[in-house]
Amino acid sequence: MGNSVGSTGKTVGTLRRIALVYMTVLLAAASLNYIPGLTDAEGRAFGVFALDIFDDALHVASALWAGIAAAVSSRASRIFLRYFGLLYLTDGLLGLAAGSGYLDLGIVHHGIVDLPLTFKILANLPHIGGGAFAVYASVRFAHEAR
Length: 146
What we know:
By secondary structure, the protein is mainly alpha-helical. 63% of the residues lie in helices and 3% in strands.
């Protein structure tokens, strides 16, 4: 991906564009419960994700962090991607191992939950994949932030 010129005349590098994509995806995740037809009778989005207002607030706060970082600089975007990625990746890995993550305080409220492995994979894949890619991008494109 090449750099494009933003409205201020500054180049918008890959780190900033990735942070903007994360902002968009996180806002979409926060809206899942409010789109008719995406939740089942038990309130789970796509039949897997039991998102509540706390999860929505976490996704919106993360989206704001991503958007602000993208607006500020490539360095801010790299910092966002690194720390956001580590937080979400480790939350997903804990969810995979224990059935509950820490970002939504699930491990505190529910402890270790015995769930089918397939369900745990599906439920935690967004945090594992999204977190891992964010960390990768923060390393791969670190040269833009110098």
